[in-house]
Amino acid sequence: MADDFDTGTRSAACGGTTTVIPFAAQTKGQSLCAAVDDYHRRADGKAHVDHAVHLIVSDPTEQVLQVELPALIQTGYTSFKIYMTYDDLKLDDGQILDLLAVTREHGAMAMVHAENADCIEWLTRRLEAAGRTAPRFHAHLRPMLVEREATHHAISLSQLVDVPILIVRVSGRDAVEQIRWARGKGFVSWPRPVRNTCS
Question: 172: domain CATH number?
Fold first, then answer.
């Protein structure tokens, strides 16, 4: 990003924003706690407004699942984001189920970015083969059904574990219909707020 905590939070304060909560994104092979600590180091002595970090889990190892994430939840990181798309972030069904089990056991909330990565990749190959690479074709990679299917899929995984989730960045009415159905059944919910105090 162009901003660090100094310039970003000064700009936020000038615009009347009193709290910022950037994502602390775990990279593959990195400890989740190390990702959180890194963002706190970036903010130390530089932030001009209140701040916290929100977790992105991209490598749910046994250490993360059994030790790090439960400890972070206990100290106030009560929600985290997971992805079903983007190569560096996406998780498979087993990994998502493992994380949902942790949220159920420890009273947290998983936020899910729901898009079918395989469908997007397939559409990408077809568009590239046809020479359709201009920016205007980006929308063709994400028809509503790609989000609808992934939203329903994420909801189904949450049903299997019997824990509510929050679907984020919803852009299509088909996905909204899936969420309405799931909310009626109690499987899609709003997260608890993330507290500002963390280890």
Answer: 3.20.20.140
